């Protein structure tokens, strides 16, 4: 842990004389101190290297915070000092009684994530140390080594979309920054229907909770929760230290910089027992880059029509990826105030502004590919939160509250149509804007009860409320021909969705071998807004001769609400071995439709003949998931002080009424032939059960001078997507009910001839027709197996850290050489093996220099599930350096 801090779950408690019920088993002292911090609520600052080799006999019973620490350290060559209320520092003493010199230190391992391997549920933590080993260019890079987690990456789009165990989009995964939900989305009918914007420079760690959740943040969640936790002032302050921070600056090196320009940040903190202030700023610049060229045959024959135009494809592979320039600037302010009686208030503000481009690949007359800009984006995301906590030395009270506001706005310039004006399909360049505003309120409390020396019961309960409001606008003038077809405007509609939730979760622990938990939540939503489109329908009513189709406006004023209870249950058991824990979990989830799914209408990405129609009759999704797994956590396994952590889990998530984008729907008014409307899209509920299952593996071994981590995800099976072809019904039929004599003029001679008379009516059989396979989006194909292996060595008292990382996927093989849509590559997931090297050297206690070489073998690859419309290969061999100074 290096010089670090054992952060209690409820910081701010004082070392008063009120009693705390401790239950800390015998274990290495550094682990015992972490358990003390968790149970007492005291922040403990210590250097884990200086506690190496010391073993604690544990602590059980009722003590004051200071009395418990004194007893825990009894007979140890360690002294403590309470420098502020709720903060204590530890120092190891030499035989002479003098404190040991610390020297140059750094974070020496992932011990801050050890709790993952001792927790009976599927969870993962990405530490700051892991992030720094491969400085992320795209925020998705931070997640690539985490089992069970995927990301849909468009290298041009800095937006991050998190996929957990195959599930993503529209809030199925709660993506949040410090608990603030990031619900922005602009529908492009591809792989990212919901993105967030987070600057990796401000990340302290990322926590991933997988599956349905009964606690805070679980409302509307089917896949899990991805929490991006930002830095706090306490990370830079400590006993007797009232000012601190860090400065980071990085850049690509020479020609191997490969489009990586200045990336840096500054974070400054100052404060004392009264309060603290954190200020941060960051700036990131990227440009055009060259992709890798080796092992290009892994990409198959169909990407960019390789099988038809091999020379053009080879030129595309070897040329720079164009229009990749982007600039991101971020600011952060956090103001914390410690109030009397263990209360704390914190006001935080974070803003990120990013500029990026969209580009399409075109083919010129010389059979060469080139990039043409299709859009320019200016995106601003702002987060404001007010946090309050009350954590007295009372087992019944551990209260937290949060009020927050998130607004994300995208201003986009769009290129005009490439069609000629005479064709009737031309439209000019235009501006549009998409904005999502989210208000949120969170209240929760945890009460703890102790029974004897071995049994503990905790009860976490609270409420969560959030409201999403969508505010789109567009200056687009429709092409003339668009008025002669079923038409609607605006790809992201105006509307509002409110969700409210109450929840409670009980957790019972018997000694250190049995853990039981059971939770129940009730979610309720209200969806309101207006939407509609035009359809061509036959007039209904009395019989008519040769009825003609007429343009009919179908408008929907929606105001609907519903609610549902969702339970969870889990059990963890240690079968007589301290280092082995078996666990299983079961849970239900419920997600009502989002505004975009229900109300969206218009063109999904500004061009072509595609059209998306609303479906205000979408049903909520329901899920049931279970998992079974085991944890291993063993210290001093092969040598004194080493540790092994392992986590393996089988998961199975089944979703009923799964909402997917049907790319071939028929509209009301259809008669006779159906299923020929490719390009008319609408969200539908899958009539089949949608299932995501697999096995995930995580392994972490650290022996001080050597360490390694392994993660791997194996997905199983595939899904069918079936729905009503006439997604809103309204099929019509013409039935002849007789004839009618009408005059016909033949050269001045009037003759009465019989004409058929038709009765227009509904067609229930056509309405009931089901078709399958017309699906587009991230759920079309199960994510491919993917893994990562890291191995490293530490030298010179752990100040020099060098290592290698392997990222690999066997691919899914779907349509690599025989794809139906040559220009739509969303189904492709080629295999790849990518090697990275890194080195980090702490020259002094405060100064670090890092190097990272990504894609050492210059592999031609891309991270799959990306947007086909902006398919871009990942960077080739890239070398960057990073300077960091802490003070």
Walk me through this protein's architecture.
5% of the residues lie in helices and 51% in strands. The longest helix is centred in the first third of the chain and has 12 residues. It has six helices and 49 strands. It is mainly beta and 887 residues long. α1 packs antiparallel against α2. The strands form ten sheets. It has a 22-stranded antiparallel β-barrel. The chain has a five-stranded mixed beta sheet with strand order 9-14-15-12-13. Strands 1-4-8-7 form a four-stranded mixed beta sheet. The N terminus is likely disordered. The chain has two domains: 102 residues, Phage tail protein beta-alpha-beta fold, CATH 3.55.50; 628 residues, Maltoporin, Chain A.
CATH structural fold name of the largest domain? Maltoporin, Chain A
Report the structural category. mainly beta
Question: Into which percentage range does the β-strand content fall?
Answer: over 45%
The CATH class assignment of the largest domain is Mainly Beta
Distance between the termini: 18 Å
Average pLDDT score: 86
Number of helices: 6
Per the principal axes of the C-alpha atoms, what is the gross shape?
globular
Give the helix proportion (percent range): under 10%
**What CATH architecture of the largest domain would you give?**
Beta Barrel
Largest sheet, described in full?
A: 22 strands, antiparallel, barrel
Radius of gyration (CA) equals: 30 Å
Beta strand count: 49
Going by CATH, the homologous superfamily of the largest domain would be TonB-dependent receptor, beta-barrel domain
What is the count of structural domains? 2
Low-confidence runs: 1-17, 101-110, 821-826
């Amino acid at each position: 842990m290096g010089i670090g801090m054992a952060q209690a779950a409820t910081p701010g408690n004082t070392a008063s004389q009120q009693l705390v019920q401790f239950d800390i088993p015998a274990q290495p002292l550094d682990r015992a101190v972490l358990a003390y911090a968790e149970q007492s609520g005291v922040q403990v600052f210590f250097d884990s290297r200086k506690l190496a080799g010391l073993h604690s006999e544990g602590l059980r019973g009722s003590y004051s915070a200071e009395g418990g620490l004194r007893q825990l350290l009894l007979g140890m060559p360690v002294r403590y000092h309470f420098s502020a209320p709720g903060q204590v520092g530890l120092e190891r003493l030499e035989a002479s009684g003098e404190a040991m010199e610390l020297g140059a230190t750094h974070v020496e391992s992932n011990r801050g994530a050890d709790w993952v391997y001792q927790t009976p549920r599927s969870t993962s933590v990405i530490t700051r140390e892991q992030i720094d080993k491969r400085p992320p260019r795209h925020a998705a890079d931070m997640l690539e080594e985490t089992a069970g987690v995927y990301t849909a990456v468009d290298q041009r789009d800095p937006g991050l979309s998190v996929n957990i165990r195959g599930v993503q989009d529209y809030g199925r995964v709660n993506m949040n920054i410090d608990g603030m939900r990031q619900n922005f989305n602009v529908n492009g009918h591809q792989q990212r229907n919901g993105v967030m914007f987070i600057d990796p420079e401000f990340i302290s760690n990322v926590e991933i909770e997988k599956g349905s959740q009964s606690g805070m943040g679980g409302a509307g969640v089917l896949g899990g929760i991805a929490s991006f936790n930002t830095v706090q002032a306490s990370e830079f302050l400590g006993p007797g230290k009232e000012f601190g921070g860090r400065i980071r600056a990085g850049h690509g090196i020479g020609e191997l910089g490969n489009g990586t320009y200045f990336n840096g940040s500054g974070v400054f903190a100052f404060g004392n027992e009264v309060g603290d202030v954190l200020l941060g700023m960051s700036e990131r610049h990227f440009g055009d880059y060259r992709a890798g060229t080796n092992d290009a045959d892994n990409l198959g024959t169909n990407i960019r029509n390789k099988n038809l135009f091999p020379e053009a494809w080879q030129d595309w592979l070897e040329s720079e990826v164009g229009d990749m320039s982007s600039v991101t600037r971020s600011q952060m302010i956090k103001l914390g105030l410690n109030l009397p009686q263990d209360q704390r208030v914190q006001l935080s503000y974070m803003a990120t502004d990013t500029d990026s481009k969209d580009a399409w690949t075109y083919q010129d007359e010389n059979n060469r590919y080139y990039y043409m800009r299709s859009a320019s984006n200016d995106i601003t995301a702002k987060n404001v939160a007010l946090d309050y906590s009350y954590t007295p030395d009372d087992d019944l009270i551990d209260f937290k509250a949060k009020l927050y506001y998130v607004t994300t706005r995208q201003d986009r310039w769009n290129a005009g149509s490439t069609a000629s004006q005479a064709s009737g399909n031309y439209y000019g360049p235009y501006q549009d804007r998409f904005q999502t505003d989210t208000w949120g309120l969170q209240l929760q409390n945890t009460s703890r009860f102790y029974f004897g020396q071995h049994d503990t019961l905790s009860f976490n309960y609270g409420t969560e409320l959030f409201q999403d409001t969508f505010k789109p606008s567009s200056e687009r003038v429709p092409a003339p021909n668009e008025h002669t077809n079923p038409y609607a405007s605006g790809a992201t509609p105006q509307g509002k969705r409110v969700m409210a939730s109450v929840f409670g979760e009980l957790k019972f622990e018997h000694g250190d071998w049995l853990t039981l938990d059971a939770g129940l939540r009730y979610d309720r939503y209200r969806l309101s807004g207006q939407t509609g489109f035009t359809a061509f329908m036959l007039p209904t009513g009395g019989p008519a001769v040769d009825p003609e189709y007429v343009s009919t406006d179908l408008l929907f004023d929606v105001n609907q609400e519903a609610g549902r209870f969702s339970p969870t249950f889990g059990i963890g058991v240690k079968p007589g071995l301290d280092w082995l824990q078996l666990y299983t979990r079961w849970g239900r989830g419920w997600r009502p439709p989002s505004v975009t799914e229900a109300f969206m209408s218009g063109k999904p990405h500004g061009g072509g003949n595609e059209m998306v129609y609303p479906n205000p009759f979408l049903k909520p999704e329901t899920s049931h998931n279970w998992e079974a797994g085991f944890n291993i956590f063993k210290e001093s396994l092969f040598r004194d002080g080493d540790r092994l952590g392992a986590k393996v889990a089988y998961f199975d998530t089944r979703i009923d009424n799964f909402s997917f984008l049907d790319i071939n729907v028929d509209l009301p008014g259809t008669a006779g032939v159906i299923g020929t409307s490719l390009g008319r899209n609408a969200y539908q509920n899958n009539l089949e059960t949608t299932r995501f299952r697999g096995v995930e593996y995580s392994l972490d071994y650290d022996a001080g001078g050597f360490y390694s981590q392994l993660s791997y995800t194996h997905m199983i099976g595939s899904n069918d997507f079936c729905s009503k072809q006439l997604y809103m019904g309204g099929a019509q039929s013409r039935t002849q009910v007789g004839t009618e004599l009408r005059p016909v003029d033949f050269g001045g001679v009037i003759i009465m001839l019989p004409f058929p008379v038709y009765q227009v009516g509904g067609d229930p059989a056509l309405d009931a027709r089901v078709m399958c396979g017309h699906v587009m989006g991230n759920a079309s194909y199960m994510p491919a197996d993917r893994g990562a292996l890291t191995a490293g060595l530490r030298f010179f008292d752990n100040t020099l850290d060098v290592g290698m990382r392997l990222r690999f996927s066997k691919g899914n093989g779907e349509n690599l050489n025989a794809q139906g849509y040559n220009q739509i590559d969303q189904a492709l997931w080629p295999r790849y093996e990518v090697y990275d090297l890194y080195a980090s050297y702490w020259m002094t206690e405060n100064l670090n220099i890092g190097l990272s070489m990504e894609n050492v073998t210059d592999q031609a690859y891309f991270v799959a599930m990306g947007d086909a419309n902006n398919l871009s290969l990942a960077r080739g061999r890239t070398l960057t350096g990073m300077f960091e100074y802490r003070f």
